[in-house]
Automatic annotation (TrEMBL):
Residues 21-211 form the Nitroreductase domain. It holds the Pfam family Nitroreductase. This is Nitroreductase. Its cofactor is FMN. Keywords: Flavoprotein, FMN, Oxidoreductase.
Length: 236
């Protein structure tokens, strides 16, 4: 059993970590306030401590703001390729056919988001406009694109995900918010020439980084998590 002082210290540290994890959300509206480059560097430096098999560290990040971020937006929005027509030809994020319980969870978050924005299920144009906000990084001042070498295997993709999570948690520790965005992956052909991404790298996702705009209704969304009993088995 821990000594009293040590136990208190441990509890305090747990509270800090737990708060960073549980306060992480996919924020979909940001303030224009800039984020300093040194802060971004600190976040990425900390996140690079994420675990990876045999310390391969199979992640690359392309960080940009200002004009370069606008170039990414323009390249996608001027491509003439609607999101529903975009081809997931590098990797597939979702199954061809959704099934329960995942289909129900997906629908629930979609209804909740569009409901918060006052978008009805037949308001196709408004749904498209909201989805297109991905490509302006929800007005965040900092955008990121993540890549992984296509010669690597599934284990490295798991490592890549742990790195992404580490970025999002480190950002929360600095009062910042994020939104991970798979929506960028099908537009890798438009993104590559803007950032100079080599052919051997697969675009896995993007991420918005900045300060939350608390006045926006979409940021009031709080997604639910299922109870432990639905996904944990304690084996005796």
């Amino acid at each position: 059993m821990l000594a009293p002082d040590k136990r208190k210290e441990t509890i305090d540290e747990a509270d800090i970590v737990d708060e960073a994890i549980t306060s992480r959300r996919s924020v979909r509206a940001f303030l224009p306030d800039p984020v300093g480059e040194e802060t971004i560097r600190d976040i990425l430096r900390v996140a690079s401590r994420a675990p990876s098999g045999t310390n391969m560290q199979p992640w690359k990040v392309w960080v940009f703001s200002g004009e370069k971020k606008q170039e990414i937006t323009d390249a996608i929005m001027n491509s003439g390729i609607r999101a529903e027509k975009a081809k997931w030809d590098e990797y597939k994020y979702y199954p061809d056919q959704f099934f329960e319980p995942y289909y129900g969870r997906r629908r629930a978050v979609g209804f909740a988001l569009y409901g918060a924005l006052g978008i009805g299920k037949r308001d196709v144009d408004q749904m498209r406009a909201q989805h297109d906000r991905n490509f302006v990084f929800f007005d965040a001042p900092v955008g990121m694109i993540f890549t992984i070498d296509r010669r690597l295997n599934h284990g490295s993709w798991i490592d890549h995900g742990m790195f992404l999570q580490s970025i999002m948690i480190a950002a929360r520790g600095r009062g910042l918010h994020t939104c991970p965005q798979a929506a960028f992956a099908p537009y890798h052909r438009q993104i590559r020439p803007v950032l100079g991404i080599p052919d051997e790298e697969i675009v896995t996702c993007g991420m918005a980084l900045g300060y939350e705009d608390t006045s926006k209704p979409e940021n009031r969304l709080r997604t639910e998590r299922v109870p432990l009993e639905e996904f944990v088995t304690f084996v005796k």
